[in-house]
Every structure is written in C-alpha cells, then in structure tokens.
Write a structure and sequence with these properties.
2 helices, mainly alpha, transmembrane helix, 54 residues, 0% strand
Length: 54
C-alpha cells in the first residue's frame, strides 16, 4: 500500500508539534479544524434549501 506524500507530511508535522509543544496545541488545532469543517459542511448543505422567490 502506497502512502500519500501529503498525508505523511501531515503526520510528521503533527508528531513534531506534539514533541515540541505537548498535546495542547495539537488538540487546539484539531478542534479548530473540526469546527471549521462543521461550519463549511452546514453552509454547503443548507445553501440548497434557499427558496427562489422570483
């Protein structure tokens, strides 16, 4: 199984962040990405429910 180079870099960056700063910063980053992802997903799903009253 071949690994995607971007995924390997992301994993290495996360491991480096944990070693340098502990798990607090990594957890913060994960939470921010989750919140942004949820907001973008909600926007994408809810934009289809707009009514076009012409």
């Amino acid at each position: 199984m071949d690994h995607h180079p971007a995924a390997v870099r992301l994993t290495e960056a996360a491991a480096s962040a944990v070693q340098q700063h502990g798990t607090g910063n990594l957890l913060r980053i994960v939470l921010i990405v989750m919140v942004l992802g949820c907001a973008l997903t909600a926007w994408f799903l809810l934009r289809g429910y707009k009514r076009k009253d012409d």
